[in-house]
Amino acid sequence: MWLGDGALETNSYTDFLVNAITQIDPLVASDIVLRRADYNAAALEEMLTTALNGRVLVLVIESLDAVFDRIGIAGTRALRGFVETHSDTLVLASAPTLFPAVSSRTQPWFGNFDIERTRQLTVRECTELLRRRGNDTALAAYLDGAESRDAIDVVYQALGGAARVWHLIADTATPETLSDPAETINKALDMLTPSYHAILSELPNVERAVIVTLGRGNGDAHAFTVGELAAHSGITANTAAVTLRRLTEHNWVVGAKRPGADQRRTYYHLTDPLLETYIRRQTPHRAASTSRGNDEQLPHSFRNQKPTVTGR
Predict the structure, then answer these.
(1) In the 8-state DSSP scheme, what is residue 89?
(2) Cβ atoms of residues 244 and 235 within 8 Å
(3) CA geometry: angle 86, 87, 89, nearest 5 deg
(4) Which are the contacts of 87, defined by CB distance < 8 A and separation ≥ 6?
(5) Could you please report the per-residue DSSP string of 101-142?
(6) Distance between CA 169 and CA 189 in Å, rounded?
(7) Are 114 and 98 in contact (CB under 8 A)?
(8) Tag placement on the chain: N or C end, fewer CB within 10 Å?
(9) Measured between alpha carbons, how far apart are the two ends of the chain, in Å?
(10) pLDDT tens digit string along 221-233?
């Protein structure tokens, strides 16, 4: 069974079961639709088991965070119960980040996934992804030129190599859009804004406050020590340290030493440059002074930067 990105038709656990049954045994689909009110979750689970007829059930789910949010805590608990009682079930899922429904000890699915994080793509791999997804001769010709290498290098320096971001860019890539790095970055941010808003809204208050502080930065500083972050966030140093440890484990934040600086100090920053840009867009005191295309909207690594060629 496959649930596509967002799974708009799945708004409850019973919707989830109906979707599964319909995909596995389309012959019963019309009967379920006509008599939907006659089937409760237990009856649908029995129908699904019958439809499987001893076969392994493989659930492939995109945007698991969105699906779990729609079916609610009761639905995720019921699904966990079904999987426990039907051992021939495999759940293969993706999500933009590690989210509370699978990372919190209080949630039904905590500890039940083997979690793998996607690695960052290289500049060369991002270019190849654009070439394959675009399937456009004009785009392919543009990507072979020096101008495209300059532009893609700049976008890469600003956004990093997150596969999800480059898939979004590739979906609408043209020579005209790629030749304007600022527009490429803004378009990617526009597409990811709803996702960022939803994910940040689900976080505990302290974690969200730390992420927002890191995203806003302090002048040109976009990396903080524990003490600096505590002072800017209005929390204790101990709370900041514990929160940073948790956010680092969940890949929101990364810490590093600064060459030539006091090696006892670790400086933390967000792993996602585009998230930093989203947070700055939401900062009230900057909103009035920013406009589309303004350098203030762009990640700090991109501002005032001209295209430069890096090694490949």
Answers:
(1) E
(2) no
(3) 80
(4) none
(5) HHHSTTSTTTT-S---PPPPPPHHHHHHHHHHHH--HHHHHH
(6) 10
(7) no
(8) C
(9) 40
(10) 678 999 999 999 8
What is the Cα–Cα distance from 69 to 25, expressed in whole angstroms? 26
Q: Is 216 a residue whose pLDDT tops 60?
A: yes
Residues 6 or more apart in contact with residue 63 via CB below 8 angstroms: 5, 6, 7, 94, 95, 96
φ/ψ region of 40 (left if φ > 0, alpha if ψ in -120 to 50, else beta) reads: beta
> What torsion do the CA atoms of 298, 302, 306, 311 make, to the nearest 10 degrees?
-140
Overall average pLDDT of the 96-111 stretch: 86
Q: Could you tell me if 31 and 92 are in contact, meaning their C-beta atoms sit under 8 angstroms apart? A: no
Both tokens of residue 69?
Answer: 């949010």
Q: Can you tell me which residue has the tokens 């060369």?
A: 124
Q: Which tens digits make up the pLDDT trace of 261-270?
A: 888 889 999 9
Q: Is the pLDDT of residue 291 over 60?
A: no
* pTM reported for the whole predicted model: 0.60
Structure tokens at 188: 């990617």
Residue listed under structure tokens 């945007």: 63
